[in-house]
Structures are given as C-alpha cells and as structure tokens.
Amino acid sequence: MALLTVLLLVAVMAAVAVVLLDDVRFSVRRTTNADVQAQAQWYAAGAESLARRQIADLIKADPLRTPLEPRWNGRLLNFPIEEGAIRAVVTDGQACFNLNSLVYGQREDLFARPEGAAQFIALGAALGVSRARMAAAAAALTDWMDADAEAAPGGAEDARYAGLATPYRTGGVVLADVSEMRAVAHIDAGLYDRLRPYVCALPTAQPAKLNVNTLTPDQAPLLTMLTAGAVGVQGARAAIAARPRQGWASTDAFWGQPALQTYSPDDQTREQVTLVTRYFDLTVDVDYAGGRAVRTALIHAAPDGAVRTVIRRWTPEE
Questions:
Q1: Is residue 114, in this structure, part of any structural domain at all?
Q2: Nearest-angstrom CA–CA distance, 34 and 28
Q3: Domain boundary at 206, 235, 257, which?
C-alpha cells in the first residue's frame, strides 16, 4: 500500500512538473516574441524619424520646387540589419483626389463643395465608371461628412444606415482614412478597388494640389480629372512623359507644352497644380528575427520648414 502511494505521488509530481515546464516554455516564448516585436517597432520608428529628416533636407534644398534628385518618389530603400532588414518607400502623398475636398468648412461645420463632387465624378469617368454611379457615390460621401441630416439627391444620411442589419451612423466629420469609404452607401468593393489608387484622405478639406513633377504615367487619370475630361487619359500620359529629367521649371511651362496646347486651364485649375510636395506617404516594413512590423505614416512639410507626422498607423495601406 505504501509503495502504491509513493508511485501515485511520483506520478502526480511528474504531471505537475510537465505542466510547469510548458508554462515556463510558453512564458519564455511569449517574452521573446514581445521583445522581437518591440525591437522591430523601434526600427520602424527610427526609419520614420530618418525619413522626416530627409524630407526636411529635400524641402530646404529648394523651397519653391521639390527636387526630384536624389530620386525619392516611389524608390524602395533596403537597409540590412542584424537578423533582418528594413524596407522603406516614400511617395508623393498628395498625388491623389482628396476625398475630404467633397466638403468645405471646419471641424463639424462641413458643407457640400460642388467643385469637389465634379472632380470626383470626372475621376471616375476617367477610370471607366459611369457618371451616374459616381454622382451617387459623391452625394453619399458628402452626406457622410456634412453637418446637416438631410440627404442630398442620391445620397444617404443616418436613416439609410440605421435600417441595416448592423446599424451605424454617418461620421459628421472629414474622413480619417480612405478605408472609411467602404462603409458609405453606393460604394461596393469593386468601386473601392477601382478608386483606391487615386484617392486619399488628407487631414484638410482643401483640394489636393498635384505636383506635376512627381506624377507617374499610371496617375494620368488625375490630370484628366483636373481638366474635367478635356485632356483624355492618353493625352495626360503624353504630358507626363514629356516632363524634363529635372522636372518642369514652372507650372506655366507645364501648361505650355505641346501635349496640352489645345487646353486652356482656368484659374481654379491652375491653382491646383504645383511644383512643391507638402504631403509625403511613408511605408516602413521591418523583418527582424522572425517578427514583422509594418508602419505607415503621412508626413507634412510646412512652408516654414517644419516637418511632422500627421497620421501614423501600424498597418499596411488598405
């Protein structure tokens, strides 16, 4: 009997030891993973800090025309580190239609901006989307942000969303992220995917100014949008392709090129073209010791030379 008791006690102690060892191994693994993730995030934060300094130097080099050299727009930078690598890409963050320009005003006092809706519809037309569908999407987006509770023709206010299986309300403020479009009426996955490369949500209700020195041929629809369709996508590509190696010396030189001689821009269109980039998109992807951290940021370079991060996320762009 005593032997049986001893054997039972040994068996129980062995079982407890196995459980304790599993707990210890799990705790060690969890601590290691946390340390790896924290270090990867520190690397990403360091890359963002470096990007801000480089952007400040870029703006300081020529405050009136953002230099194209050294090449920065869309260039993949790869920095090897111990047990991994840091990859970073900076792009022009204002080469897009600012969804928040569908309204004007401050904070929660926002009202419909017809000029913004016209450009949004023109962008969709350049991408092959019907004007009727784009007009409905523009109205719904405007209703999502504006101050009133009255739906515009084709739009949608709180009453529309309150009747859904999972009800919610409109934002009543400017968009914080482009992905909010997916919650807005008349915008399905197909339309979202079509528009996503050409739209942004800058932290202002002002229209985005297009830097014609950083536009790529793939962004030609933005130029078509700006001219309300007067310059077709092929013509816009030709205008972008004609850019000198060092970029246009002035916006007048851009508008005066042969590819655009048949188009005469009005004052509003001229004001939306620039040679200076104020918003920069940064994506940092860190691989370290089996862990990964992705950091995206929108960096603003003010006219006074101050450079700061205005939006930061620990997720890839959607």
A1: yes
A2: 10
A3: 206
Whole-number Cα distances in Å, 151 to 102, 121, 138, 140, 192: 15, 18, 12, 8, 22
Which two tokens mark 251?
């916006």
Distance of alpha carbon 172 from alpha carbon 102, whole angstroms: 13
Q: Residues 6 or more apart from 225 whose CB is under 8 A from it?
A: 97, 119, 122, 123, 126, 198
Confidence grade of residue 64 (pLDDT, cut at 50, 70, 90):
very high
Tell me which residue has tokens 């089996």. Answer: 290
For residue 212, tell me if it sits in a domain: no
Contact yes or no for 302/278 (Cβ under 8 A): yes
The contacts found for 241-248 with CB under 8 angstroms, 24 or more apart, are: 241/217, 243/212, 243/213, 246/68, 246/69, 247/65, 247/68, 247/213, 247/275, 248/212, 248/213, 248/275
91 touches 66 (CB < 8 A): no
Assigned token pair, 40: 């990867």
pTM equals 0.91
Distance CA 153, CA 295 (A): 39
For residues 299, 175, 187, 161, the Cα torsion angle rounded to the nearest 10 degrees is 160
Residue 148 belongs to domain with CATH number: 1.10.40.60
Which of the pair, 266 or 8, is modelled with greater confidence? 266
CA 145, 99, 104, 125 dihedral sign is: negative
Quick one: what percent of the chain has pLDDT higher than 90? 86
Rounded to a whole number, what is the distance in angstroms from the first to the last CA of the chain?
69
